[in-house]
Amino acid sequence: MNVDGTPFRTIWLADDGEAVEIIDQTRLPHAFKVISLATCEAAARAIVSMQVRGAPLIGATAAYGLCLALRDDASDAALAGACDILLATRPTAVNLRWALDEMRRVLAPLPARDRAAAAYGRAASICDEDVAICRAIGDHGVALIRDLWEKSGKSRPVNILTHCNAGWLATVDWGTATAPIYVAHEEDIPVHVWVDETRPRNQGASLTAWELGGHGIDHTVIVDNAGGHLMQNGKVDMVITGTDRTTATGDVANKIGTYLKALAAADNDVPFYVGLPGPTIDWTLFDGRDIPIEERDEAEVKTVTGRTARGDIVSVSVTPEASRAANYGFDVTPARLVTGLITERGICSASAAGLRGLYPESAGS
Ligand code: MRU
Questions:
Q1: Can you tell me which atom of ligand 1 is nearest the CA of 277?
Q2: Which of 244, 201, 250 lies closest to 224 in space, CA to CA?
Q3: What global pTM score does this model have?
Q4: Could you give the residue numbers annotated as active site?
Q5: In this structure, what DSSP letter does residue 172 have?
Q6: Per-residue pLDDT tens for 131-183?
Q7: Do 209 and 117 share a structural domain?
Q8: Measured between alpha carbons, how far is 356 from 364 in angstroms, rounded to an integer?
Q9: Concatenated DSSP letters for 117-149?
Q10: How far is 245 from 155, CA to CA, in rounded Å?
Q11: 274 in contact with ligand 1, CB cutoff 6 A
Q12: Ligand 1 centroid to 252 CA: how many Å?
C-alpha cells in the first residue's frame, strides 16, 4: 500500500540483498521509521517488542529471521536453534509456527551450503503468497460489502466495524479484515469504518486509523466499549476482524475484545465476518479453548503512550501504582457467533465442514 504516495510492503530485503527492512510499528502513527534487521536475534526482538506484529507479518518476519541465522551457520543444529528462538517469540499467532515449519520443510533436506540461498527464496515466496492471499480475501469479501450497499439502495456508505489492526501493517500487504475495504474503495463503493481503539496497545487508534487515513478511507475511532451501542442503534452494517489462529472447527482467536464484539453483533443481527488466510488455520486444533492465549506485561495496561502537544512521545500512568493489572492479548470467538470466514479461496461457514470444503487437502492432516 502507499505511504505518502510511495508503495510499501511491511517487510523487504535491503539493497545488500541480505539484511531485512521493516517499518517500526511502535513509532506509528507519529513517526514513519524503517529499521534494518541483521540477525536472527534482531528479528526475534522485533516480534517480541511488536515493531512487527499481526499474524501474517509475524510469520514472514520469522521466515526472514531464519535466513539471517543461516547466513553464518547453516548446520542442522543452527537451523533447529534459530527455529526455537523464533518460535518462542509470541504464542498465539499460528502463522509463526506455519512459516517456520514451511521453511524447515524446504531447508532440512538440503546440504548446509545450499540452505541460506534456499531460505531467502522461500521467505520471499512466503511474502509474495501472503500478498496474493490477502488480495484474494479482498476480492471475495468485497462482494459482501457491495451487497450491503445495494441493499441500502446505494443511499449511504456501508458502515463496517473492525477491531485491532488486521490491515496491511499486520500482513505483508493489503491486510485481511481491511482487504475487502480497500477493494471496495477501489471500486468506488462508499464505506465508513468504525475503528475500535483496541486497548491496551491501541493498534486500532494508532495503526488502523493511520492506514485508512493514508488511503483516504472515511473512518471514526471509537473506544472499545462503543461497538455495542452503535450496533443497537443501527450504525453498523457488518463487522470484519482478523484472526491469529482459527481452529479446524472455525473457532476464532483474535485480539482481546473481539469476542465481545461478536456477542453484540449476534444480539443485534449484525453480520460478523473474519478475514482468514489459509496459513492462519490450525488444522491440529478442534476446540478454541485449546488455543494458547498470550499474557503480556501489566505495564501495557497501567500506562498509555502518546504524543504531547510539544511533540514528545511520553507514557503516563492511568492506574494507582499499587493496583495489579491483567493483560490477556487475545480471546476466542466461538464458531457459532461467526457469520462467515472470508478466505483466499472464498467465503465459508465457520465450521469443520465449511473449512473442509475450501481446504480438502489440509482437513484431517
Ligand atoms: O497483538 P497483535 O497486534 O499482533 O494482534 C494482531 C491481531 O489480533 C490481528 O487482528 C490479527 O493478527 C490478524 S492480522 C491480519
A1: 15
A2: 201
A3: 0.98
A4: 244
A5: S
A6: 999 999 999 999 999 999 999 999 999 999 999 999 999 999 999 999 999 99
A7: no
A8: 8
A9: HHHHHHHHHHHHHHHHHHHHHHHHHHHHHHHHH
A10: 37
A11: no
A12: 12
59: its cell numbers: 510469520
Structural domains counted in the chain: 2
Q: What is the pLDDT of residue 274?
A: 99
Ligand 1 pocket: which of 22, 165, 294 to mutate (most atoms within 8 A of CB): 165
Nearest CA to ligand 1 atom 8: 255
Contacts of 88 (CB under 8 A, 6+ apart): 44
The CATH number for 79's domain is: 1.20.120.420
Atom of ligand 1 nearest to the CA of 255: 8
Q: Is the CB of 52 under 6 A from ligand 1?
A: no
- List the domain range (segments joined by +) for residue 46: 2-128
Ligand 1 centroid–CA 92 distance in Å is 10
C-alpha cell at 328: 490477556
In short, whether 242's Cβ falls inside 6 Å of ligand 1 is yes
Which tens digit of pLDDT belongs to each residue from 107-129? 999 999 999 999 999 999 999 99
Among the candidates 128, 156, 189, a domain finishes at 128
In this structure, the residue with its CA closest to atom 15 of ligand 1 is: 166
Same domain, 93 and 198: no
pLDDT digit string, tens, across residues 32-86: 999 999 999 999 999 999 999 999 999 999 999 999 999 999 999 999 999 999 9
Does ligand 1 come within 6 angstroms of the Cβ of 300? no
User: 51 and 163 in one domain?
Assistant: no
For residue 365, pLDDT over 70 is answered with: no
Of 128, 159, 177, which residue constitutes the final position of a domain?
A: 128
Judge whether 293 and 330 are in contact, CB under 8 Å.
yes
Q: State the distance from the centre of ligand 1 to the C-alpha of 271, rounded, in angstroms.
A: 20
